[in-house]
Amino acid sequence: MKEIICPYSWDCGKEFMPQELSEFDYNFVQSAVEKKMTFMIIHSPKCSREFKFDTVQWKADEFGYSNPNSIVKKNEKTTKQLAAILNKAKVEIPLPYFEYLISDEFEPQVSIFTDEEDFTLFNLNELCEKINIDGKSYFTISQLKGFTDTLMKIVGENSQKSQNISYTELSNCLAIGSENTRILFIDTRDQNSLWIFHPDGGDVEKTALTLENIVRRDKQHS
């Protein structure tokens, strides 16, 4: 196998051989090559960050980290335009949270675990932005469908780890925030529970926080 170039060129960008990966990641790459996978997440042995890797094009891309020095200009859409985008995509955000997103009380930083970094909630415009997962385009809010589609191709629905939510159910859940590569999402089964999805292993964990807690936190502290 050829060298891999770390995609974080602004402070790493170093080349390394696949054999320098952790044993788990190296075995994962070998298996992915045989299956001609175009999407997987592994860790750079040079800077320890996670990144996306396409074994067909043999190309690494950033995942969850961006150049802090880059300035990105975004064209903000109106709330009406964004609501129309979601409606066309048949994505329904629970009304109390939608109203919170478009209110002056919206606060993007939220603490999920004590003594850990805060998660950042996506604003309405960010939820409607497109991201690429395994060669396909998804709205940020619907990105779990992209991850679960890939996971089911690899392990199948019946072979997934013992979890309280199936991949099929997970694919319908709404991503509302992130912390590095971890994704915070709403359990659409009850429209209130909040869970975290770990893309590197496909695991999920339920949090003690609910959507109602997020919406009402400013009122509780006022």
Count of helices? 7
Which consecutive residue ranges, at least 5 long each, have pLDDT under 50? Answer: none
Radius of gyration: 18 Å
Name the helicity range. 25-40%
Number of domains: 2
Question: Rough shape?
Answer: globular
**Mean pLDDT reading:** 88
Cα end-to-end separation: 59 Å
The main sheet comes to:
6 strands, antiparallel
What is the H-and-E element order? Answer: EEHEEEHHEEHEEHHEEEEH
Strand content: 15-25%
State the secondary-structure class.
alpha+beta
Q: How many DSSP E strands?
A: 13
Order of adjacent strands in the largest pleated sheet:
6-7-10-11-12-13
Describe the model:
By secondary structure, the protein is of the alpha+beta class. The chain contains seven helices and 13 strands. The strands form four sheets. Strands 6-7-10-11-12-13 form a six-stranded antiparallel sheet. A three-stranded antiparallel sheet has the order 3-4-5, covered by helices on one side. The longest helix is centred in the N-terminal third of the chain and has 13 residues, at 23-35. The chain is globular and about 50 Å long.
